[in-house]
Structure formats: structure tokens, C-alpha cells
Amino acid sequence: MKSSDPLWKQALAGKMPEHLAREVDIYETEIALRKQGKIDERLFAETRLRRGTYGQRYDNGQRYDGATFQEMHYPSGDLTKGPNTMWDAPGMQRIKIPGGGLNAEQLETMADLAEEYSDNIAHVTTRQDFQLHYIHIDDTPSLMRRLAAANITTREACGNAVRNVTACPYAGVCQDEVFDVTPYSRALANFLLGHPDCQNFGRKFKPAFSGCAQHACGLTNLHDVGFIASKQSENGVEKRGFQMFVGGGLGAVPYMAKLFDSFVPAEEILPLTQAIARVFARLGEKKNRNRARIKFLIQDLGIEKFKELVLEERKTLPDDPRWTDYVKDAEQFSEAPLKPGGEWPSAAADGFERWLNTNIRPQKQTGYVVVTVALPLGDITANQLRSLADIVRRFTKETIRTTVEQNFVIRWVSQSDLPEIYKALEAVGLGDPGAGAIVDIVTCPGTDTCKLGISSSRGLAGELHRALAEKSFELDESVQHLHIKISGCFNSCGQHHVADLGFYGVSRKVGGFAVPHFQVVLGGEWEHNGGSYGLPVVAIPSKNIPKVVTRLTERYVAGRANGETFKDFVKRIGKVELKKALEDLAKPPADPADRSFFSDWGDPREYTLGDMGVGECAGEVVSSVEFDLAAAEREVFEAQIALESGQVENAGKTAYQSMIHAAKALVKINHQNISDDPGEIIGEFRTRFYDTQKFWDPYAGGKFANYLFDAHQKADQPYTGDSSRYLIDEAQLFIDAAHSCYNKMGTAVGV
Predict the structure, then answer these.
(1) What sign results for the dihedral spanned by CA atoms 194, 197, 200, 201?
(2) What is the pLDDT of residue 70?
(3) 8-state DSSP, 751
(4) pLDDT tens profile 518-551
(5) Cβ(632)–Cβ(658) under 8 Å?
(6) Is the pLDDT of residue 89 over 90?
(7) Which pLDDT tens digit goes with each residue over 406-452?
(8) Residue 388 burial (CB count, 10 A)
(9) What is the DSSP letter of 538?
(10) How far is Cα 147 from Cα 36, in angstroms, rounded to an integer?
(11) To the nearest whole number, what is the mean pLDDT of the chain?
(12) Distances, alpha carbon 113 to alpha carbons 3, 95, 244, 289, in Å
């Protein structure tokens, strides 16, 4: 019996908050109306997304009956009409967990749902949410009612809305925090949920809280609005407040958040965020989704003008008692231990000692620690969730949270209980050591289920985890604490930009065949709330990425100066030198019979578009296109080197030229005599590839072509450090898209 049935509804009615129950009833009606054709699919798509319900990909692009991804999702063959997967096949349900905070009952509810509706797996995301895959849309109202009965909502887990409000999972127990940000993150989450001023955004809006500036637990630099705890003395009285940042974001082109105000009083964070939401809703881009995030609005206006507009908006806001009531109510929040604090345990077996070294963090409260439960790939089974619920009841007052590194942390564990809690976790397969270490790899779903996936991020992460776990305690101490993060495509869902070793999926042709690759991204910093973003260095075939990790870490150990971080090492050695050290790994295997190179991790099938044809003319054209695209990649790398050496203007111009040359490479396929004039190249590219939608991504649309058009329009303007940095990222993505376009043309090139 499903919770849409009358008896289930009656049983759950008393457990569901009234507003959540009403939301699910409305959603169920909207599903029925869509099936009757009374709601447009485009409108319903945003409706279901705002309730966390996505379509998903299957079997790396193949359905069980052999239909291709395109046939399944675009049966008409028209990629512009949008997918219809929610009715034909299961999808994904995202579940909102503000600040990552859960209790035992909610863990058990998640276990039941994973077992009954999904594939028995719950997945923790990089924004402290849960995702359940293989969910049928007809089951989503039932699932939502079960969640609502446990006081969990999926509302605005996706869509053009305020997403999950994330917060440091160590808030309240961290030794380095200014104060506990938990109550303020909860107040903001409650205030913004369904707020009428947050319903007309062009894209999503992500808030985050951190209790300190030096660690990475809150990642405020990556967010649309970020708050870092701060204190200020006024008339001899210590006052709580926040450093407030705006306009951060990863995605295809990452933007570092800018300081909005060095101190915002705690009672002002709700009205000020509301004012920001109103300015974003009014002035943010609506038509071009590729520039609809608030980071682009701030870039266009400048931070000072944006701040001026927000403060003017704040003055005109009608007074709302919730501004103070929510904060006052939230400040009543407190946590307490189940047991008295204890002494640190004496030495024990090797497995326990290794776990103690990596998975335990002392609290500021004497005698207590935070225990991290490391989840490889962010996955946990239904039975493990139930066991985890039992464990947190046994050892704590159900004080458990998810983290942005796709793990759990159990707070308020007495030190004397560490041997027993380790034994309990180990018994259910949750006692892996290495939390926060190099083996604790963050990854997005990639080609497993994501419709944008290009390369198998989870497959690669699983292989790296296995290989590194086997030798993790033989690794040098400096290497053990590096961060590896992997995304299946350019959209930084795996947060590859802020990793020591970052990778994102691309495709390239080798010997006329498409081969899964990953761009190697170096120079990022995880600490200081995501302190700096890395840039791509070279694309390497997927099967050679483990060798990349080995080679770079060995080089780091051998050449590291005293106490030098990996980021500083990369900066000192230089990316030119590091690229040279990896270039041989970009080549195909010496043995032509070795076909493993042409398949992705976890998928035995060849990742190929087939033979390119046999005509000599086609051979010359293929050679020319590939050569020209390689030259464009070289140029964008040179732009990166110029930027790092302070040659800002040269960096911007070189990045722009690399885009022009990549566009020309494609145009030359059918127009050999194209001139070097950028205007003519742009015109021919627009006519032959943009207008015809050959240079078109099913989900990003003309996003990458627009990078080229925008760069051409601004080519006469002087470049700044920021504009050159963004243009280099855009140029690399345009060139990656040019490779992809050429690969998709396949045999047509030989006609």
C-alpha cells in the first residue's frame, strides 16, 4: 500500500506538519493534471524540480531494452524539445537536509525509502543532501509523505529556488569556531523556504555558513551567499555577526565570492538576504540560463553597485517579525551529550589505531570527540542506515550530520566509548579509516545516472579509492592529507576546482576513436572555505588517471620544500613543468591490441564512435581538425601561464585567440578557404554550427558557443585579472565542446 492510498494518508496525517502535507497534495494533483495534458511539460518540469524530482540516465547511456540515450529521452529525434524521462523510466529524488542535521528516526525513514522505492542505496551529496535514484514519479508523492511525517521536505531541493542551506557539520563543537552557526543557518533555511521573494529567480541560489575562516567545512567562497561567524565589540558589549560574501559559485566557470560586508549583525542576516533575493529576482538574467546565476549579475554591476542596490532594497522592505523571531527561536538550540566525557582510550589493534588517526576530531568540550563515518562514493545501504540509527541512539542523543565531503559525523561521542563505537561501526561495514584523507575521494554521479556525464567519475573514484586504500599507510604523510575530487563533466558537482588533484570528464579522439578523458585540474585549495580555484592543465585518458595521481604525488614528495602545501608546490614548480611530466600519459598504449584504453572505468564496452571512414580526403581533414584543436589547447594553456606570471592582458588575448582558432578548425571542415579574420570566422561558425545546432549540447544548449560570441564582443576591452581568469576557463570549455562536436560529427566528416 502506498501513502497516496486513503488509509496511508490517514495514518500519516497526524505525523505530517500541515504545510508539508498540503504541499504534497498539491504536487500529486499537478502530476494528475500533467498526465491529462492540462499542465504544460515545461511548467511541470520546473514544478517537479522544485520538489527535488529529476530525470536520470541509465546504464551509461543505454536502456535495458537496448535503446540509446537519445532514443529514450528524445524519441522524436529533436534535441530541443526536452526529455520525457519522468514518465518512461525512473528518476532521481533529492532530499533537503538543512545543515546536514538528522536524527535516528529520519535515518530509519531514509533507509525504508531507499529499500522500498530505490536500489537500496542512499547517496550523500556535496551539499549535505540525500539522493535516491531509480525513483518512479508516480511514487514520489508517497515518498514525500513518508519524509514529511519525519519532518523532512524535498521542497526547493532543486529548481530555480533557494537550495539547501549548508553549514559546517562541526558547528558548536569545533575548537576553532567563533561561535555556533547552527541556529542561524536553521533560521535562514526556515525563513527562505517557500518565501514569495524567492520564487522568481533565473537560476538556483545557494547559501552556506561557516564558523571560522581557516577551514573548509562551510565552503562559503563557493556560494551565492556565504556567512562566516564573526564578533565585534559595541560599547563594551560583544556582539555576534557575520562576514558576508556574495557571488561565489563553481559550475563550468568558477567565481570566487566577494566580500559584501565585513560585519553583519546576526539580526540582520534574514532581512539582508531577503533584500539580495529581491534584487536577484528583479535584475538577474532570465532568458539566458547560462548567465542567470547571481555571480554574473555581480560581475556585470560590480560589487559596490550591487551592494548599493541591496541596501536600498533593505530600506524599503516591510517589517517582518520573523526576522527576529526566527533568530531568537533558533538561538534556543542546544545539544547535550548522552554520556559523561571520558578519557582517551589506550593503544589497541592496528585497525582501531588507524581509524583513530583519521576519523576522530576532538571537540572543544573536554572528553568528547566527533566521529566521522567515511562513505566511499557517498553511498550507504538501507541496512547500514538502520544500524547507524541504532549506533547514534546508543552513544549520543542522536547528534549526527552529513558533510560536504559526502560522509557522516557523529557528535558528542565520549572518548571512553571510542573502542565500542568503532566495533559497532566496523561490524556493519562503516568503520573505514581515511576520512578527509587522500582515499576519501569526492565524486558526482557522472555517467552512472547523470544525463550530463561524459566520463565515469564514480568508476574512476572507485578505482582510485581501491588502489590508494591498499597502500594508504605506506604513503608519505604529506600525501595522505591531499584532496581528490572528480566531476563527470565540466559542471563542478564533484568540486574539482577546489581539490589538490581535481579531474573533470571530457572526450577526445585517439586514432579516430572517441576515448573517455579527464582534464587534470591543479592549483585549487580546499582549506580557507575553498580558498582558490585550480585550472585545467592537460586532458588524460581515463584509464591513465591513476598513473597521474601516482606521478604527481611522487613528484610532490621528492620535490617538496619544508612544509610546502601541494598548492604552493604546484605554483613553485609551474604548470608547464607539470604538464611535461604528464604528456606521455596522454598517448595511446604501445600495444595496439590493448583495447582497455577505449573503455571507461566500470564499463567493459568500448567508448567509441566507430571508424572514421577510409577516404584519403577524409583522413587529411581529420588530421587537420585534430591538429588545429590541439593547437588551440596549447594556446589556452599558454594563456594560463601568462596569467600566472602577471601578464593579464596577454592572457586574455591569448585565451580569446584560442577560441577563434578552435572555431576556425571546425569551420574548415567544409570551408577550407576561410580567412583569419575573427569576424568572418565568427560569422561562418554561427551559420554552420550555432544556427544549425551542430555545436549544441542537449542540456547546456548554445552555452559554449555563447562564450565565443561574448569574448568576440569584448575583444577590444582591456582585460582584468578576473576577466582573464574567467575567459581562460570559458576558452577551455569551448575547446572541449569543439572536440565533442567534432566527435559527434563522426563519420559525417568523411562524406
Answers:
(1) negative
(2) 37
(3) -
(4) 999 999 999 998 989 998 999 999 999 999 999 9
(5) yes
(6) no
(7) 999 999 999 999 999 999 999 999 999 999 999 999 999 888 888 78
(8) 25
(9) E
(10) 27
(11) 87
(12) 12, 11, 37, 33
Q: Which residues pair with 121 in a beta bridge?
A: 381
Q: Which of 376, 369, 423, 374 is nearest to 396 (CA)?
A: 369
SS3 labels along 425-493: HHHCCCCCCCCCCCCCCEECCHHHCCCCCCCCHHHHHHHHHHHHHHHHHHCCHHHHCCCEEEECCCCCC
Read off the pLDDT of residues 591-638 as tens digits, 9 standing for 90 and up. Answer: 767 777 788 888 777 774 333 232 222 223 334 787 788 888 888 888
Per the document, the length of the chain is 751
Half-sphere exposure of 573 (CA within 13 A, CB side): 24
| C-alpha of 407 from chain center | 15
d(Cα 19, Cα 17) in Å, to the nearest integer? 6
The HSE-up count of residue 603 (CA atoms within 13 Å, CB side) is 26
The cell for 287 is 532568458
Position 473 scores a pLDDT of 66
Structure-block grid coordinates of residue 419: 573502542
Query: For 10, what's the count of Cα atoms within 13 Å in the CB-facing half-sphere?
Result: 4
Query: What's at 99, amino acid-wise?
Result: G
Among 164, 170, 205, smallest CA distance to 186 is for 164
Q: Of 300, 291, 236, 232, nearest to 265 (Cα)? A: 232
Q: Give the closest residue to 291 by CA, choosing from 249, 258, 333, 352.
A: 249
pLDDT digits (tens, 9 = 90+) for 140-182: 999 999 999 999 999 999 989 999 999 999 999 999 999 999 9
The per-type count for the chain, helices as H runs and strands as E runs, is 26, 20
**Nearest-5° Cα angle at 447, 41 to 72:** 40
Burial of 219 by CB count in 10 Å (0-12 exposed, 13-18 middle, 19+ buried)? Answer: buried
> What domains can you pick out in the chain, each with its CATH number?
6-149 (no CATH), 174-330 (3.30.413.10), 350-427 (3.30.70.3340), 437-608 (3.30.413.10), 611-751 (1.20.120.330)
Residue (of 114, 59, 54, 63) closest to 86 by Cα position: 54
Q: Which of 281, 300, 94 minimizes the C-alpha distance to 203? A: 281
Q: What is the pLDDT of residue 604?
A: 73
Beta carbons of 553 and 581 less than 8 angstroms apart:
no
Q: Which three cell numbers stand for residue 683?
A: 560569422
Angle subtended at Cα 223 by Cα 371 and Cα 104, rounded to the nearest 5 degrees:
35
413: β partners: 369
Average pLDDT over residues 449-461: 87
Q: Do 137 and 86 contact (CB within 8 A), yes or no?
A: yes
Our measurement of the distance from residue 65's CA atom to the centroid of its chain's CA atoms, rounded to an integer in Å, reads 31
Query: Rg of the Cα trace of the chain?
Result: 26
> End-to-end alpha-carbon separation of the chain, Å?
57
Buried b / exposed e along 340-374 (16+ C-beta atoms within 10 A): ebeeebeeeeeebeebbebbbbebeeebbbbbbbb
342-365 pLDDT tens trace: 999 886 777 899 999 999 999 999
Which residues contact residue 557 at a Cβ distance below 8 angstroms, ignoring those fewer than 6 apart?
A: 476, 478, 479
Look at residues 231, 239, 240, 311 and name the one whose alpha carbon lies nearest to residue 271.
311
